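pinging the channel bc i need a second pair of eyes. not urgent but kinda urgent?? the chain im working w is below, pasted from the shared doc
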Amino acid sequence: MCAGLTVGLGETDTDSVFRRSFSALVLAECIDRDTVVRRQPADRILGWGDRLAGWYVREQDLRGFVPGKGWAHAAAHGADALGALARSPHLDVPELTVLLDVIADRVLAPGTPLLVHGEPDRIAHAVLEILLRDRVPLSILEPWVARLEMGARVKPSRGEDPYLRTGNAQAVLRALYLQLAVSPRQPEVRSDLLLCVVASLRRIHPALLTR
């Protein structure tokens, strides 16, 4: 499965994305299984995590549903895999912080297309899994939210569709707010982080949320 993450990496609009994307999904199942039965050494899980993170930020084919072929969904499957990593007891604050950075890198990368097949919800769920470990402090989370906010407010070039640059960060922040608000599982930082996310959303949408 780790080898599958690199097959055709860098290609776009080819069938190789299915192997990469579903390799990530299978690795997620392997990691979750280890979280239950604890059969793997820590360095193996961390090694899988390095391979997944490296693939996720480098993946160029982020199509969702491919007509006639089905789901490619690399952005969603990668988020699922990062969520599985977050649940692993082998990861602590440094590794969980890296996962947050990987997620932000993917969401904010100029080459990431507008994600319209439910990926923002899956990405926000991966963030929630990180938060539910109750290890990452607000001193790390608040700057991370601010980074997404900055991406959600970036000024486009003249003639450029602004939503193509800001839409993913906006969608992920909204999805994170929703999960913090209604999920039956909540992290210890929920109240403070909700205030932080709400403040960011109000600055992103002043005409809608400040009047």
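so The mean pLDDT is 97. and The longest strand covers residues 65-66. — does that match what u expected or am i reading it wrong
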